[in-house]
Amino acid sequence: MKIFLKTEDEIELMRRANQLVGKTLGELAKHIKPGVTTLQLDKIAEEFIRDNGAIPTFKNFPNPYGGPFPASICTSVNDVVVHGIPDDKTVLRDGDIISVDCGTLLDGFNGDSCYTFCVGEVSDEIRQLLKTTKESLYLGIEQAVAGKHVGDIGYTVQNYCEAQGYGVVRELTGHGIGREMHEDPQVPNYGRRGNGAFLKAGMCIAIEPMITMGKRDIWLMDDRWTVKTRDGKPAAHFEHTIAIRRGKAEILSSFEEVEQYQVEL
């Protein structure tokens, strides 16, 4: 395992990349409504990212199991947990949820964040899933301070979500981030306190709870990207990129732009 500690100047560059991700998600929030296709959202995101001087990191991102990712954002609707590929056939409908995962490469550093949006009016049951998942993200971030371990983050997310009857996906994790989108260490959403990589000031990681309404079991579709719940029940996904500090983590990404248009959970 090789973990890269970032300098203050590098953290500032990462903040800029992550703030652009937040602005991109905010731009998409204006357009997420019934009747819109996921391909339309992808085109909006790519144009916005490039107009702001960055590169969409996910575009042509390599896959060890198949071809490169063909789009600029991941659009995961309802029972799709992650890595949904935008297309012109997937039309958003009232009551859907869509997790939009976005990455940017700006001045040599990566930003990465995800938000699960409500499309129109969703059921109270689904809104509670989203609320719990988002809350678990911030509880995990509270554990992400110098002197603790990755397992402290995962334990907190797992304990909070499972106590409310939700499934916590095991096969997909958060990750270190910097010049590369995926760096060490992996950051699972489950674990034991005091276990896993030791957290040091200057580490930058993406924490991203992926939580299911039903069982935690998932399956990979034939496109070798799209991951769905096995029981067909919906899943939520929220993600922030943070810098590890002494005392309190610094959140580099932002949901502020999104929540100008989405009712806050």
List the main descriptive attributes of the protein structure presented here.
single chain; 265 residues; 26% helix
Question: Cα distance, first to last residue?
Answer: 37 Å
Whole-number mean pLDDT: 97
- How many runs of DSSP E, i.e. beta strands? 15
Q: Which bin fits the share of residues in helices?
A: 25-40%
Beta-strand percent range: 15-25%
What kind of sheet is the major sheet? 5 strands, antiparallel
How many helices? The count is 4
| Poorly predicted runs | none
Envelope shape: globular
Major beta sheet, strand line-up: 8-7-9-14-15
N-to-C order of helices and strands: HHEEEEEHHEEEEEEEEEE
Could you tell me the radius of gyration in angstroms? 17 Å
Q: Which structural class best describes the helix and strand composition?
A: alpha+beta
What does this protein look like?
It is a single chain. With about 260 residues, this protein is α+β, with helices and mostly antiparallel strands. It has helices at about 10-30, 40-50, 125-140, 150-160, and strands at about 55, 75, 80, 95-105, 110-120, 165-170, 175, 185, 205, 210, 220, 225-230, 235, 240-245, 250. β4 and β5 (about 110-120) form a beta hairpin. The mean pLDDT is about 95.
